[in-house]
Structure formats: structure tokens, C-alpha cells
Model the fold of this input.
Amino acid sequence: MGTIIDLARSGQMRIPHFQRSFVWDAGDVVKLFDSIYRGFPIGTLLLWKKPVKKDRAQFGPIWIDAEAHNGGLIVVDGQQRVTTLIASLVRDFALQDPRFQIFFDIEKRRFSGLINGRQPSRSVPVTEILSSKALLSWLRENGDDLTDEDLDIVDDLGGTIRDYKVPVYVVPEQDESVLREVFDRVNSAGRPITRSQIFHALFAGSDEWASPRAVVDSIAALGFGQVDENRVLQTLLGIRGGDVMRDIHAEFRSDESPDEWYQKAEDALTRAVDFMRGIGVPHALLLPNTLPLPVLAVFLHRHPELDPWNARLLETWIWRSWIFGIGTGTGGQTPILRKAISLISPRTHGSPSQLDAYQDLLSLYGLLDKAGMRSIEEEKFATDKASSRLVLLAMADLSPVDPHGRPIDIGDLLNRYGTGAVGSLTAGPRQDVGNRSFWLKEWGDVRAMQSPVDLQSHFLTIDDIHGDDPAMIEARRLRIRAHAEKFLAVRVDEGLSLRPPLSSLLVAD
Done:
């Protein structure tokens, strides 16, 4: 463990520029330390040994002035784990980001982050346990409050962390074929490494800004949240036309610039994000599924100037695809995605008109003959479920307010707190939609709100706040379900006519 820290601090180990984004939250950091403490495997680090230049090395929010090194070690797989260890175990680094301020609760024998911004009682910071000297100093200062058993626990903790062996696989610079093979086989945290990761890990230079990760970072900077890198690749390949699942490695001719195409993909996805916001989807965490995103991006690339009527048709297609669960059957999303983009962006001939493209999409998804919309089923609420996200979009439609009566910027709230922005209103079950809203724990009891209008924005009434919790949850659940069904029925728009825009039917005198 100490070797990894030393390699990073010396600048010999580097996170490449195409992997700038650190996406773990405090909960993920705690889980990593818990795995180490319990002796669980945390996966093999994949490093590429090659010379590195003098540079500012970045590990998530941490920056290190790094000298040139002939035996540099590039982290190809393991960025989240390496960054977590470096940022959490070094005191100066941990203080730069609250996600890395991790403590070991001596009494409960488990790791924890900050609680209400403070260190948990009877706990030791992990910044003190990697060095025997630092741990001994901490014990001298805090030993009076600890029992002999506590001292043994802390001593055992320090030994466990220091002695933990992180498996590492190092590929020499000249063996790119081996690196490619390892990439095809290695799993990271149980997830296979994707084609997009293979592409930009092997071919994106340290100073090349265009890559799937760079596009993801640019979209995230818009405040819309994280877009999957594979959706970036699918957008790029869709813009170029044809099958979006083809191999990216053979995509570009020697006289082509991938930078130009990644910029086009970024521009198209930016337009798609703007469109999503315009139809009431403020953040990626509220997307019931992301299948429409690359299709929408490619559509908007091919037809950047949408007629208002065609924009309405496109909006209806998106909502219908979510509400009717397109791509959730046994065939999955891939066949539908391939066919959809090949219809609106063929490689061998020109693009269809806006109306023809929309009709192709609608017919492909089998929605033209849909009769009626399924009702919102009574099921357990979870922020990662498509049905729950549809309900959340309906809840957002009421423009909920904060404790001071100010409209909540839901996109910003999700950006800062993730799914933690969807809090519980009472101590009742979190799986009950009647107990969930866009409400932060630190805002206190929702019953403190007195304005009927403000309460209504959270599906509450004055009578509710004077009743008991179960009654309030039940009443709220019924109102949310009724509103969601009306909200979704409007967006399905079953009576929508499939006709050209009126502007195209006007004939000049």
C-alpha cells in the first residue's frame, strides 16, 4: 500500500489525461477501505510502463508536480481505486475533498465518512494508519480515551492496511498487443472494460483532448451529470452513419482527424441535452433509460434546425419510448439502437427528411398501434428504476420549493447531491413513493412549511402536516400516482396526428 502512495507522490505513477474524471462518492471510498480491512480482493491494477514527461499529475482533485521519469507507470485500469488510496491516506490530500476524509469507528469496527461535517466520535482518521510513526503519535494524543481492547483494535487496523497487497499487472511499453488483450479480458469492479475505454486508453495521447472521456467531462460541465462513454461512441459512429456497434479501431483513415469527429459528437450531445431539458428532464439521473440519447443526438446533428411541429413529434417519441419501455424486453436495447440510427443516419445514402425519420422511428418501435398507456404500478420506489424516474419527472413538473419557498433547481440539486437529493420526508419506508421528494435531510421537517402553495409543490396539504406519518404518506402516494398518470398521458399524446408541419403546406400567392 505504501509503495502505491510513494509512486504517486514521486510522479512516477500517473493517471492519463483521458481519465480525468473521478466519479466515486464517499460511500464508494468507504466500501474500498472496508474491503481492504476485511481482506477482500479489490481487483488488479493494470499499469503501462513507459517514459513520462515533466507534468502536473492529477489524481482526481489532487495535483502533484511530477518530474520526467523513464520508468513511468500509467494507470490504464484502476483509476478510482488508486485515486482513493492516495487522496485518503495522505493528510494534506484528504483535507482537499470531504469524500476522502475517512475514519475508522473503533467501537463499531467499521469505516465512515464525515457525519454532519464532523469526525465521528471514538474514531481514528485513516490518514494516521499507514505510517507506524503517525499512528503511534495519534495514540499518544488520544490514548487516554481508549481501552486496552481499543488499542489492540487500532494497532490491528494499522497492520492490516499497511500489509495489504494490491495486485498489479505491468505491461511493457512495446507490448501494446498484450495490453489490448488484457483490456479485453480484465474486469474492473465486476464490470467488463468497454470498447470506448479500450480505444482511448490505447490511442489517446497525453495531450489529446478528444476522447470519449473528454466528451463525457464536457457534458458533465453543463450540469447535466454523467453520460456513459459508450453513448458518446454510439453518437460519433451514428453521425458518421451506419452501424453504431462497429469496431472503433478501424474507423478512421490515416488522413482523418478523430478530434474533429469527437467535437461533432460533443456538439450533437450538447444539443440533445438542451432538448432534454426543454422537455422537462433536468438531469441524467432522471433519464428512465439513455437509449434515446444517442438517437436524439444523431437526429439533431442531421437536422439541426427543427421545425416546431417536428420538435413536438420528436418529444412525443422520446416520452413514448420511456413510458412503453422500449428496449426493455428480451431483445434488449442494442438491436433497436442499431436499427434506429441506421434509419435516420444511413452510411450509403442521404438522410431522410425530419418527418420521414420520425415516422421510421415510431414504426420501428411499434408505437403507432399502441392503445392506451399502462398505469403507474404500485411497486417499491428506487431512484435507479425507470418507473420511479418517470414518477420523479412527474414530481418535478410541480416545481417543488425549498424550506424558504424558493423553487428548487433540481438539476443543480442532483448535480451536487446525486440521488441523495431525493430524500425521505419521514422516518417511514424509503421504498414508498409517498415518503420521497426532492428534499434534503438538512432542510429539516417538511411540516415546518406553512404555505399551502409551498406544501402543494410537494403533494402535501395543511391537513397532512397535522396528521400522523402513515396517513400523510398514504395521502401523498395517491396524489402522486394520480398526477403521474395524467402527466404521462399528456406526454404519450395518443391523438397526435402524424402530418407534415403546416409551414411545409403553405403555398405563396
The chain is about 45% helix and 10% strand.
